[in-house]
Every structure is written in C-alpha cells, then in structure tokens.
Request: fold
Amino acid sequence: MTDERFFELCKYERQLAAEGYSLIAGIDEAGRGPLAGPVAAACVIFKSEGPFVKGADDSKKLSEKRRESLFEEIKEKSFAYGISLVDNHRIDEINILQATYEAMRNALEEAIKMADDKMPGILLVDHVHIPQVEIPQISITHGDAQSVSIASASILAKVSRDRLMKQFDEEFPRYGFAKHKGYGTKAHYEAIAQYGPSEIHRMTFLKKLYS
Reply:
C-alpha cells in the first residue's frame, strides 16, 4: 500500500481526532449473501491518534494470505476489538438484515468489554446505520474502502467467517464450503440439488428450490 493510499484511508479518523474524539470504532460485516453459514461482524476500536494498520483495506481486494497476516496485526494494534457470528438458524428466524444488525451490536459489546467498558465516542459503519445503539454513528457507503477503521473490521469479520466455513467443510465435505465459503456458485447449487440442504444452510435463501 502506498503512503498516499494509507493517508486517504485515514481521512475520517484524522477529522474525528481533530474534532476531539479519543476512541473511534469501525464496524463491518461479512457473509450477508451466502446460502449457508453465519453472518459475521467485527468492531475495531482505535485510539484516534492510532496506530492504524497500514495495508488494511477492503477485505475483498486482499489475498487470503494477506488478510490472515493483517488479522493478527489488527488485533495487536487496536485498542480493543470484538467479533460476532450469528448462525443460519437465527438468520432464518429474524431475516438477514436484522441478523446483521444483531452481529454488529454483539461485536460492539465485545469490543467495549475488552476495552474495560471504555466507550468509543463515535462509530464508523459500512453502509448501514445500526439500530438500538446510542453511540453516534457515521454510515459510509463502501466504507471498507474509505476508512481504515472499517477496513480493519472487515478483515476481522471475513477471516473469522472464512475460518469457520473451512471447519464446516470438514463436517459437510460434499458442499465445497472451503472453496466458495457458502456463496451461491454453480457447484454449490449442484451439490444442494444432489444432496439437499445441510444443517448450516439458510432455508430462507433457498425458497426457490424448496417452495
């Protein structure tokens, strides 16, 4: 990552530090779209003066190897962090959007616990506004490509979910979860057609197949 790109990714954090915020949290999710597995969310709290993680960017743009190395660096450099996974049964129960909000709130709560109950002054959130949260929020479209705090959260969320989907691949080897992570690839749909849904499939996402 160039210095210019890193400087650009820290623009929200610099502005908020100038406004007097001492702790800033970034929140993002991973896995809203797949047919199987949980939705994940992460919250990363940084001190407004940093240190931030150079190299943290939209997790989808990074290689798996790079995400894995940044995962550890983010945990080390952050003031606190929290990760939450909400499973497929809960997704089917309350719908994917509400499950995503629930995961985000849970991740925020975990981060605050890790911070010894020190509250971030503001939340930077990718795309959405999280309901039932009293801390002020700034919703940023494509936030994982615009804020180093959100980018850091996106990496924690994606790596955590991908690791779990690899574990599920061992438990349900017919579906190829290690490769597609539960997304609706041609091979995944063919496996569902041949074997039926597994215990971790989101039945509300398979209505066209089982209506």
